[in-house]
Amino acid sequence: MKKVIINGGKRLCGTVEISGAKNAAVAIIPAVILADGPCTLENLPDIMDVRLMLLLMKELGAKVEKITNNSYRIDATEINKTELNEKYTSDLRASYYYLGALLGKKGKASVASPGGCNIGNRPIDQHVKGFKILGAKVTDLPNGAVMVEAKEEGLKGNQVYFDIVSVGATINIILAATLAPGFTVIEQAAKEPHIVDLANFLNLMGAQISGAGTDTIKIQGVEKLTGCTYSVIPDQIEAGTYMVAAAATRGDVIIKNVIPKHLESITAKLMECGVSVSDDYDDEIHVKCDSRPKSCNIKTSPHPGFPTDMQPQMTVLLCLAEGTSIVNESVWGNRFRYTEELIRMGASINVENKKLAVVEGVEGLKAANINAYDLRAGAAMFIAGLAAPGTTEISYVEHVDRGYEKIVEKFKKLGADIERADEKDPVHSEFFGD
Ligand code: EPU
């Protein structure tokens, strides 16, 4: 178990650089399988989930060469396997993107049960529906593993109408359809920035995908893709986390290497709370908070709505705000467990039906020993610890290391008094020899 100790109550001030987007990187890495040549991926965040996706690529027989901590050359042209067992797949959700990528390139795949944060039911019925519509047979294997196989006549473009908006299903169907002959239309597609980033990467290699970022994505299947060099977009949620941390500590922080357009919903909510947010430059945002924030209501929803992955962090700010806020979680069925930890820090939160949190703002939080239950809940615990005067100890920080590059170093650079209780490299040092 990894621990972090924070002596909180200090204003965060200074500049922080945002890393590449986790949820774009974990889709783009398996997409390399579709290329008939090596790809160089740049601006990959150096986090556990990315390292696991690269290890899975190696398991399949791809050559994975580290150029720097944030860039890798991947040659998947000679992969010789289409099966991934539970070694690593159960450590993260995105392992199931190997289903779409291998199906699209090799016509078959089987992947052991994916893992990911425990934030509610995570069915894959929409992925399965899409694969079947494109002409695949889908078989459930023991222990949650799934096998997909193109029928004899191969995959063929078709119309896929999703019943709900799903990031993962949209990505998996894009991966499966890119090389499928004919025309695929995805209706009710997810519109997150990482969907657009994946489509941009594939188009650079020769795919014909239009409409990414809207409800309707159109894919004209192409015969082959060529390798390329591509730089992943900045992480919207990492940026949002530092924006809220700045506000919660009444700090003054410049957040660099961002796409302000991707942060609009977070910016809007912070401004509603009375926090000053300015984006005078194309790639940076300035957050400043001099007085107690005001309450506001939040409802999470797919992009461009308020991101569910920012819900726990924003709730910490609302705990400190003047007045009552209502937080409505409409994407995941069980994403309020972390509120127990905030209540131990003196927050006043009432969760109703696992869907709604009524937050009565308090003047301040008290330091405590708390747990990081999952990735974003863990990031929220960092913010709470930074805002609360006294010594807060956060356990299970490995969840946070899955998705935040150098989080302790970045907060330290902003003036936080924060240390890891263990000395070892947070992102398992045995991987890739460092
Ligand atoms: N859903 C279904 N059936 C499906 C797929 C999804 O009912 O076949 C439901 C889910 O149960 C959920 C909703 O649809 O209630 C949305 O799920 P979605 O498929 O969009 O989520 P995901 O692809 O599993 C990605 C991110 C999550 C993020 C969500 C929503 C990755 C690797 N994960 O998950 O990120 O919360 O989209 O934006 O991209 C995180 O980074 O901390 C994280 C959890």
Mind explaining what this structure looks like?
Helix 1 (22-31) runs parallel beside helix 7 (193-204). The protein has 14 helices and 24 strands. It has helices at 22-31, 48-59, 86-89, 97-106, 125-133, 167-177, 193-204, 236-248, 264-272, 311-319, 339-344, 375-387, 398-401, 407-413; strands at residues 3-8, 13-17, 39-42, 63-68, 71-75, 83-84, 108-111, 136-140, 146-150, 159-161, 183-187, 208-210, 217-220, 229-231, 252-256, 276-281, 284-288, 298-299, 324-328, 348-352, 356-360, 369-371, 390-395, 417-420. The chain has a 4-stranded mixed β-sheet with strand order 22-23-1-24. A 4-stranded mixed β-sheet has the order 2-15-17-16. Strands 4-5-3-14 form a 4-stranded mixed β-sheet, with helices on one face. With 434 residues, it is an alpha/beta fold. The mean pLDDT is 94. The two termini are 20 Å apart. It is globular. The longest helix has 13 residues, at 236-248. Bound molecules: uridine-diphosphate-2(N-acetylglucosaminyl) butyric acid (EPU). Uridine-diphosphate-2(N-acetylglucosaminyl) butyric acid (EPU) binds next to helix 1, helix 5, helix 6 and helix 12.
Concise summary:
The protein is built from 14 helices and 24 strands. With 434 residues, it is of the alpha/beta class.
